[in-house]
Fold this protein.
Amino acid sequence: MTARKKTAPKKSARKKSAAKARVKATKTKKKATRKKAAKKKAAKKKIAKKKPTKKKPAKARASELSVFFFGGGQADGNRDMKVLLGGKGANLAEMVNIGIPVPPGFTISTEVCARFNELGGELPDEVRAAIGQSVARVEQLMGTGFGDPHDPLLLSVRSGARASMPGMMDTVLNLGLNDETVSGLVQQADSRFAYDSYRRLIQMYADVVLGVSIKRFENRLRDVKEARRIELDTELSADDLRGLVSDFLEIVEEDTGSPFPQDPFEQLWGSVSAVFGSWENERAKKYRRLNRIPADWGTAVNVQAMVYGNMGEGCATGVAFTRDPATGENHFYGEYLQNAQGEDVVAGIRTPQPINEASRRKGTMGMPTLEGEMPEAYDELVGIYQKLEESYRDMQDIEFTIQRGTLWMLQTRTGKRTAQAAVRIAVDMVKEGLIDQAEAVMRVEAGSLDQLLHPTLDPKAERHVLAQGLPASPGAAVGNVVFSAEEAEVRSKAGEKVLLVRIETSPEDIGGMNVAEGILTARGGMTSHAAVVARGMGKCCVSGCAALEIDYHAGTIRVGGAVIREGETITIDGSSGEVMRGEIPTLTPELGGRFGEFMEWADRFRELEVRTNADTPQDARVARDFGAQGIGLCRTEHMFFEPNRILAVREMILARSPEERKGPLERLLHMQRDDFEGIFRVMENRPVTIRLLDPPLHEFLPSDEEAIRDVAHALNKEVAQVRATLEAIREVNPMLGHRGCRLGVTFPEIYRMQVRAISEAACKLDQEGIAVKPEILIPLVGHRGELERLRAQVEEVIADVKKTQYPQTRVRPTIGTMIEVPRAALTADVIARHADFFSFGTNDLTQMAYALSRDDAGKFLPEYIALGILQDDPFVSIDEEGVGQLVQMGVEKGRRSKPEITMGVCGEHGGDPKSIRFFSRVGVDYVSCSPYRVPVARLAAAQAALEKRASRSS
Amino acid sequence: MTARKKTAPKKSARKKSAAKARVKATKTKKKATRKKAAKKKAAKKKIAKKKPTKKKPAKARASELSVFFFGGGQADGNRDMKVLLGGKGANLAEMVNIGIPVPPGFTISTEVCARFNELGGELPDEVRAAIGQSVARVEQLMGTGFGDPHDPLLLSVRSGARASMPGMMDTVLNLGLNDETVSGLVQQADSRFAYDSYRRLIQMYADVVLGVSIKRFENRLRDVKEARRIELDTELSADDLRGLVSDFLEIVEEDTGSPFPQDPFEQLWGSVSAVFGSWENERAKKYRRLNRIPADWGTAVNVQAMVYGNMGEGCATGVAFTRDPATGENHFYGEYLQNAQGEDVVAGIRTPQPINEASRRKGTMGMPTLEGEMPEAYDELVGIYQKLEESYRDMQDIEFTIQRGTLWMLQTRTGKRTAQAAVRIAVDMVKEGLIDQAEAVMRVEAGSLDQLLHPTLDPKAERHVLAQGLPASPGAAVGNVVFSAEEAEVRSKAGEKVLLVRIETSPEDIGGMNVAEGILTARGGMTSHAAVVARGMGKCCVSGCAALEIDYHAGTIRVGGAVIREGETITIDGSSGEVMRGEIPTLTPELGGRFGEFMEWADRFRELEVRTNADTPQDARVARDFGAQGIGLCRTEHMFFEPNRILAVREMILARSPEERKGPLERLLHMQRDDFEGIFRVMENRPVTIRLLDPPLHEFLPSDEEAIRDVAHALNKEVAQVRATLEAIREVNPMLGHRGCRLGVTFPEIYRMQVRAISEAACKLDQEGIAVKPEILIPLVGHRGELERLRAQVEEVIADVKKTQYPQTRVRPTIGTMIEVPRAALTADVIARHADFFSFGTNDLTQMAYALSRDDAGKFLPEYIALGILQDDPFVSIDEEGVGQLVQMGVEKGRRSKPEITMGVCGEHGGDPKSIRFFSRVGVDYVSCSPYRVPVARLAAAQAALEKRASRSS
C-alpha cells in the first residue's frame, strides 16, 4: 500500500495544504459562471429541450470512466449526470465546477453497481485501480496520507442514488484510522477526538461491513457510562474512549474470528462493497418498490475526505436554505451548532443556533448567530448560497462544516418547502428573471395546493394529540362535539360551531355534515361515505379513528383515559388525521396576490378544461370562485336526500303503479326545477352537466325497523308493505344491479320528471336573458340500445316543454352518456353515434374493471398495498395499465366514429394530478373534480400540457 | 291492357293447355339431372367451395333482370339465387329447372324491393313492362287470358324473402277476377266456386291493398250465416256467395270512396306494391329485429298462376316430407285432403288423410290414402319427391295440389325435423352417398342434441298440464314430491324416487338436489341457483313456476284449484317447463348406433378440445362417457357444501387466528385429497383443472338465526361470536369483494391446504402408475402481482410435498389463472408471464364488463329483451360485440407474450354453440361445459371448424 509508505508532512503543513486545496477549488470559478449563464439563456428559450441535451455528456463519458474525481477546482462530472453519479455525486461535482469549496473525493458510478452485482459482489480490478489513483489525488490535495501514521487522510464512504432514498443504504465514516494512525490524529487534533473517531469507525464498520450486531457495542458503552455515572457520550474522557476502542476491537475479533482490519485500503474495499451491496438490502428493496424506483438504477458511492466541525475552537456545522422553506421569503435561512457534527443538528439534542437575524424563531431569540460569531465564514457562506441559487435557479438545501475556520460545503440539493413557499418562490424567481412562467408552473407540486385552500392549524400553536385517524379530507376544524346530524342542524341554526362525531356516517347524515365545521368518524377508510362526501364539500374530515369509543347513548367519547362529552370543543386536522382537545388557532388561506398570479400563469398553458362536481348552488359558487369552467357532474340524487324531499322520494319508490307515482313525482319536479334554476344561475354561460338518477332505489329507503315504521306512518302505508318493498328491491350486488339508466328504462316517468325539471328551469332563465348550457347525462350505459332508447325519451320531453311552454327558447340541451361500464368503453364507437358527449366515470370503471367494490375493498386492499401487490390505491390515482386502457379505448373509438364529440372525466380521479396527466395524454377535453380540488386540477392540467409540449419537442 | 283484348280459347282447350304446360315443364328434365350430378360431385369434393360459386350466377344476372320467369320447363333463376329471388322463388325456379310441374309464374327480385322503397313505393316502369311480358308468357303456357271473360287466368301474389318469415308479410290470391271474368270462372268450374273465389279476392285485396278493416267483411259474412242458420262457410250456397260479393263490393266503395278495381292489371300493380310494402310493416320489422334479419335484404314477390285443389272431383291438396320428420326414417311421409285448399290441411278443421301406409298414425288408421285413391298422382308425387331429394340432397317439406287429376307442386323447402331425425337423416344420407361426413356434421343443429341426451316424455302419452314454469334444465322427471333437501335424501336412501320442490334453492340444498329425479322451484329464472346447478348435474329442472303456492308448513302445493300433497307423484318436463300431475311415461335416450357414429365424424373435424366442468368423480364419469377430454373446471368449493364438511369449513372461517384454523384445515385436507384422488382416477391421463377456493367466505355461513345457533352449538362457540363474524364478513357487493385470489392472499393457509391436497392425491396415484395431469387454477386475478405471489406459494407447497413425501414422482402440476376480471384481459400480456394457462371465466367477465349482476338482473333484463334493447341474454350466448372483445384481447395479448400458453373457456358459454363458434374463431384451445353439454359442444366445435375452413378457402 503506497499510501502507508508516505512520509508525513509537518503539522502546520496540514492547514496549508487544506488552504491550497480550497484555492485550487476556486480556480475554475469564473469559467463555470460563464457556462452557467449560457445555459440559463438556453433554458429560458426552451425548457423542454433541457433534458435530452443534459443527458448526452453523461452517456458519452460513461464508457470511459467508472470513477469520477472532484476537487482542486475541477470535477469529472457535473450536475446533469445524476443517472451515472447519483444526486449527491452530481451535485458535489457541480459545486466543485462552480468554484465552491468541497472536500475532495470521487464518485464510483452507478454502472459499477450493476457490474458489482453481476460479479456476485466483487469490485472489478480496473475500478480498484481507478480508486487507488483517485485516493492518491485526494492525498495530494489534502496534503495528508491514507494510512500516514503522522497525518492520516480520513475518508467517508456514502451511497448516493439517482433518487433520494434517505437512510435506506449504508454509510461508513473515518476510514483510514487504525491502531497506528490514531496517534497521528491525536497529534493533529487531540486524543479525545481521535479515540472517539476510531471508536465510531470500529462500530460502524463492524455493523455495516462485518455484520456484527450493534447491540454488543451499545451494551459496552452503556456499561462504561454506568460505571462512570455519566449520561452523555460527550462526558466520556479520552481514557474512557481509548478503553472503549480496545474493548470494541476485542468484540470484533470475538464475533468474526478475525481482528479488525488495520489496512486502510482493506477498510476502503470493505466499505465500498458494503455500500454497493446495501442497494439490495431488504429495506432498500422495499423502499424502491413503494416509491417505484427501478432496481436497475443502482446506487453510486461517494468517497470523500473527512472534514470535522467538532475539532474544537473555530469549528461548526449547519444546514441552511437559500430561501425560507416555510414562507418562501427571499432571505437566507439556517441553523448551526458550534463544535459539533452534522448529525447533532438534526438529532435535536442541542438546540441549534440561527445563522442570522432572519432565521430567529421563538425559541432562539437570545442566541448568538453565525453572522455575529464567525462573520468571515458567514460572508463566505452567503456568497456560496447566492452562487448556488444562481446556478441551480431554485431554492437549495445546503450542508456545511467549518473546520478550524475553514468552510467546507458537504451537500447541496433542491430544498423541500411548504406549498405556500413553493408558490412564492416560483413567482419571485420569475420576477427576478431566474426562471420563466412555464418553469414556475412546473415548480409547484399540484397536489400540494390543497394545503393552501383550507384553513390550517397554526404551526406555532401547541397541540396535544388525543388520537390519530385517517387524513380523509384536508383542512382544520374547530367545533363543539355533536353526535347526530339532527343535533348538528339544531345547534348550527342557533349559531353554534359544531363538529359532527359519528361511528360512521350514512346518506341520511348529509344535512348535518353540511352544517358541521368538520366530521370525525371512528370507522371507515379514506373512501368511506364520510370521507368522500366531506371531500366533495371541501370540508375537513378525519375518518377511521379507531381509538375513539363513541357512546351515543351516554353522549361521550372515550379515548385513552380521557372522556369527551357532547358540547365540548375539539379540533381536528384533516391533513394529518390528528384529533385534539380544545381549540387550536387556525390560519385562513390567502388566495389572491402571488397565488392568483401563479394560477393565471397556469391557465395560460393549460389545454384541459377544468369543471367541478357540484350538486348545489352553494358548491357551484365555491367552485366557480376557484376557477371552475362549468359543472362536469351534478348528481341529482344528492338532492333527494334532503330531509324535506326524502319523503317524496320514498313515496315515489313505494308507489305500486305509474299512477300512484304521479303525486310524489309532481312534488319532486317542483323542487328539482328550483335546484337546477339555482345552479344554472350561478354557472351562467358555463356548461352544466346533470346526471339523471343513478343509485339503486333501495339506497333511499331506511333499513332499521324504527325508521321503516316512521316512513310507513308518514306515508300512511302498512309497515308490512314498506318492508316488503324493501325486501323486493334489495340486491345481492347493488353496484351491478338495478340502477342508472336501467331505472330510466323500467321507470321512464322518473327520468321524464328530471328532464322536465332541467328543461323548464333552463328555458325560464333563458327567457330572463341568462345564458344556460344544460347537458343531460345518462348513467351506466353499457349497450348502445339503452342510450338510443333513453335519448329518444329525453328529446321528447325537451321538445314538449319547448313546444308547450317556451316556443321561443334558445336552450339546446345536449345529451351524453357516462362511460363507466367496461362494455361502454369497449363499444364506444357505436355508443358515440347516440351521444353528444362522453363523461368517463372512472370510479365505477375502476370498480368494474378491477372487480373491486370500494365498499368492501377495505378487507384486503390495505394488505395488497402493504405487500406491494399494488403500488397505489386505484381509486386515488387511475390505474393506467388496466383501467386506463379502457379510458383510452373509449376516447379513441368514440372520436373515430364522432370526431366532434366532447370527452370529460368526472370520477374522483379528475382531481388527482397524476391521473390528470394521464387524461391529458389520452386527449380528453375536460376533467371535473370537487370544488376544493379545482385549483389543483388547473395546475396539474397546466403541468400536463407543458409535459406534453416537452415530449413533443423532444 | 293487352290481356283483356285476348280472345278466349275454348273450354276444352284449358285442360289441354295445362297439360301442354306440364309437358313443357318436363322438357329439360334430363339435362337438369345431369347438371345436378355434376354439382353433387363437386360438392363432395369440397363443400366449402359451394357458397361462392353458387352466388356468382345470381350476381352476374342481377343487373340484367328484375323479373325472373319460371314455367314451361325452364326458369331464369335457380335454387342458388335466394339472395335475389328469396327462398320460395329460388326453389320454384329450381323445381322447374329439374322438370317438376309447377304452375308457371315469375319472381320480382329483392333488388326491385329496394328500388321500390327508394321511389317512395312506386314500381319502376321497366319493371312494370317486364311484368307485363311475363304475364303474357304465363297466359301462353296456361292457355288462358288475364282478364279473359271466358277463361280467365288467375294469379297469386306472394312474398318470399331470403329467410323464412312465416305470416309476417302479405299475400293476395285469385287476382284477375272481376264482375266480368267471374262468369268465365263459372263456366270453367262452377258458380259456387267462382263466387267464393271472387269474394275471397275482394276481402283480401281490400285488407292488404286498400287498408279496409277486415271486420266489416267478417261481420257481413256472420250476418248471412246467422240468417241462413249455418255454421260453416262451406255450407253457403252459390247464391249466398253471389250476394256476399255484391255486399263486399259495396263495403269497399263505401270505405274507400272508389269502386273495387275491375282492371286485372290494376289489381296486380296494387297487390305487388302492397306485398313489397309489407316488408316495412311493423310486424315484419319487429320480426326482423328479433331474428336479426337485415332490413336491406328486402323481399322478392312471386306471381304465379292459381291452381285449385278444391274444384271438386279429382282435386286434392297436401303437404309431405321426403323422410319422416319425427324419426328420420327413410320413407315418404305426408297428409292430404280431398277437394280442399292448402290452408285447410294446416287449419285442422278436417282431419287430413295419410298419403300412404307409412304415414298412418293413431287417429288415421281407417282412412283411405292418396296412394290408394289417386294412384297415378301418388306415383308421380313419389317420382318428384325422389327427384327433389336427389337434387337438394336433404329432406324436403313439399306442398302439392291436384287440380282435376293434374299434379302441381307449389313449394319445396328443407324440412324441419327433430334432433333424432336430424341425426338419422344425416347419417343415412352419408351412407346413401348423397352427402359427405362434413356436410352431415353441419346438418344437425348442435343445440338440439340436448334433446337426445335426456329422458323425454313419450310424445304419444297424454299430459294434463297443471302449470308452466321456465324450461331451466332439459329432460323429463317423475317423482314423489318432497319439500326439503333432507327429506329428499332420507326418502331417496329408502329407494323412493323423489322430486324436490322448493320456493327457491340455496347451496345447502345441493345434497337433496343431487339425489332427486328433478327440481321444481316457484321462484328464480333460467340462471337461478336451481337452474344453474341442475344443468351442471344434467338433472331436469323447471324453475320460476310462479303459479305454484308452496306451503312448506302444510306440506302442500296449491296450483289453480288443485292441491298437491307431499309424497304425491308429479312429472316435470324441463324442456318445455310443464308441470303435470301423476306419472307420464318417459323415453330413455339411445346414444349408440347412428348417434355414436355421427359424433365420431364430428370429432374428426373438430379443432377445439372439449372438457367438462365437474366437481365430483360421478360428474367426471358422466362427462368422460359423453366424450369429455378432461376437466376444465373443478370447483373445490362445491365439495365444501357437503353436509359432513360444511362444519369444518365453518370452523375454519370462524377461527380467529391461523393457529385456530389449523385443526379444521387439517380435516379438510384429508377430505379434499380423497376427492381429488377420485377425480384423477376417473380422468386418468386427461388434464384436470382444479380451481382454488373462489366464493366469498360468507357464502359458507348460515344466515337465519336458528342455523346460526346450531352452528355455534356444534362448534362450541358463542352465538354472538358467530353472528359478529357473519356481520364482519358480510359485503355490500360480494361479487366485487373479498373472494377468489384475494382470499389466497389474505388467508394463505387455505390455498396451501388445497394445493397440498391436490399434490398429495396426484403423487399418490402417480406412484400407483396412474397418469395424472393436475392443473391448478387461481381465480379472480386482476393484477399480475396477485398471480406472481400466489404462484410462488403454490410452487412452494408442491415442492415441499415432492421433497418430503414423493421424491420420485413424475407429477408436474401446471399453474394458471382465470381471466374473468376485465382488467386481467386488458393486461393479459403481463399476466401471461406468470401463467401456464388461461381459463376464461366468461360468466364473471360478462357480469363485470356489463356491470350486470346475474342475481339481480331479473328485475330488468327480461324487460330489456322484450323491448329489444338486447337481442340475447348475454349469459346464454356470449356478447361478442363487448365481452367478446375482452376474450379476444386476452387471447391475443396472452399469446403475444407467451406463444405456448394454453387457453380455455370454462364459463357456461362453453356449452353454447353460438359462443363456441366465437371461441373457435378467436382461437382458444378448449371449451369446458357441464357434462350433459359435452356432446353439444363437440358438435358445435366441429361445425365451427368446418365453418372456419370454409371461410379460409373462400
In short: The CA atoms of residues 66 and 361 of chain A lie 46 Å apart. The radius of gyration of chain A is 34 Å. Chain A touches chain B through 50 residues (CB under 8 Å). Residues 1-17, 25-63 of chain A have pLDDT under 50 and may be disordered.
